[in-house]
Specification:
mainly beta, about 230 residues, 3 helices
Length: about 230
């Protein structure tokens, strides 16, 4: 969170002392990039952070698998197509890295109880952006849509399973996403912080070779849950 705060402060200090006289948040701001919304197509990039989780559903009531989350990072590109005055279609391909530790109940040895899941994703969301009316140099928006994710660290082709300390998931997953953000128009570019929730639609888990495996035998489904905080620049 300290890194996020520093980044926000850095972006808003770009214009320095000029902010006080004609800045974004002054009482009567000069309207920046007034004709930007008239563009049919534009591009940008984003940097950000993520927090990935897993949602477990079980066949029978049992002690839950505990997930220890960590903060990962995101980087990607933005392609934006204007459909209507307040509706845009967005494609935001990106590379996402994260780490989760899974703690399975019922084991006495750490080597059996702990699975470290390091994941590198290629994330491919197709989103609709619904923007409000612009007020000065501020324009809030909602965003939602679907995405496909390729897990480059899925271990899906491995013949080893949890009996050999190998946690496996499917390489491709489908998700739906919903979030909100705000466009801040500066003199030369648009800065857009946003937060988005991601919800997996399909079971990702590859079961162990033993149908009675203590790691996968009682799991009905395993689905991704995630929160993205992105900082976009157009």
């Amino acid at each position: 969170m300290k890194k996020i705060a520093v980044l926000i402060l850095f972006v808003f200090s770009i214009k320095g002392n000029a902010q006080s006289s004609n800045g974004i948040f002054s009482k009567d701001p000069i309207v920046n990039l007034e004709n930007f919304q008239q563009q049919r197509i534009y591009f940008g990039f984003y940097l950000g952070f993520n927090s990935y989780d897993f949602k477990f559903d079980y066949n029978e009531v049992t002690s839950d698998v505990q997930v220890k989350k960590s903060t990962g990072f995101n980087v990607g590109m933005i392609g934006d197509l204007k459909l209507q005055e307040h509706i845009n279609l967005r494609f935001e391909p990106g590379l996402y890295y994260t780490k989760r530790d899974l703690y399975y109940p019922g084991f006495s040895r750490k080597i059996d109880a702990l699975r470290e899941v390091n994941s590198t994703y290629i994330h491919l969301p197709l989103l609709l952006k619904f923007s409000s009316l612009r007020t000065g140099n501020i324009r809030p928006y909602l965003v939602g849509g679907t995405s496909a994710t390729l897990n480059l660290s899925s271990n899906s082709k491995s013949k080893d399973d949890n009996a050999e300390q190998k946690f496996r998931v499917k390489p491709w997953t489908l998700n739906y996403e919903i979030g909100f953000g705000i466009d801040v128009f500066s003199e030369y570019f648009i800065f857009s912080p946003s937060i988005r929730g991601v919800f997996g639609l399909s079971d990702e888990l590859i079961r162990d070779n033993d149908p009675n495996s203590p790691w996968t035998g009682n799991i009905e489904s395993l689905k991704t849950r995630a929160i993205f905080i992105n900082f976009s620049f157009h």
